[in-house]
Amino acid sequence: xxxxxxxxxxxxxxxxxxxxxxxxxxxxxxxxxxxxxxxxxxxxxxxxxxxxxxxxxxxxxxxxxxxxxxxxxxxxxxxxxxxxxxxxxxxxxxxxxxxxxxxxxxxxxxxxxxxxxxxxxxxxxxxxxxxxxxxxxxxxxxxxxxxxxxxxxxxxxxxxxxxxxxxxxxxxxxxxxxxxxxxxxxxxxxxxxxxxxxxxxxxxxxxxxxxxxxxxxxxxxxxxxxxxxxxxxxxxxxxxxxxxxxxxxxxxxxxxxxxxxxxxxxxxxxxxxxxx
Length: 276
Hints:
The protein has one domain (about 5-170, about 210-275): Glutamine Phosphoribosylpyrophosphate, subunit 1, domain 1 (4-Layer Sandwich). By secondary structure, it is of the alpha+beta class. The chain is about 35% helix and about 30% strand. Helix 1 crosses helix 2.
């Protein structure tokens, strides 16, 4: 499982995630690794990033490796003087979906694993960032869908959504099902109840004018909160490992705020400085 957060404010976008990867056989957790990469700079030197959740690999290649392969190809496909985030989101989704379809072509759709991404950043000469979501659910591609345009702001969380849903909205993700089951509410009645609860209970953690540093603090707090929630609730702690954070702004571009390395920084100074 994963927690993948994107916070968009006026000054840019913050991406934050845990590093856990869960190996499952049937319904059994075989192992949990804590050093998976889930945040990517899709084009070195440009303010474009992505974050992933769900399936951690396609065949023998990790999503991290496949994304870096895509990044290499992207250099030959876009004009850095006129690119659009929407075009890059479509190219990325098509690239991953083609690999996904090829690998899982012999499985039934309901047997195929889910995989999700957000592609975020600034189009060339854009004043503000954009966010696109891509989902592959039971073999079907959904998106890229624009979640927030240049003038929009807010927060999106994917993967292990229950902890932040409770914190942000003030109720469990399972509440609509329970209300419908216990009170026999019709869909329109249930929708009115849920909208009323959201208006009264939601805590506005994100405002558009907050500084990028405070958005970074919020993202780190939320990932840490989900990691601790996962640790102490019953069941395997499927969210964990080092917290990774990247910030994307108009003038500074894509910058790592927290980043793990599998090699020594002291022994590899050039690689660390060049690493994106």
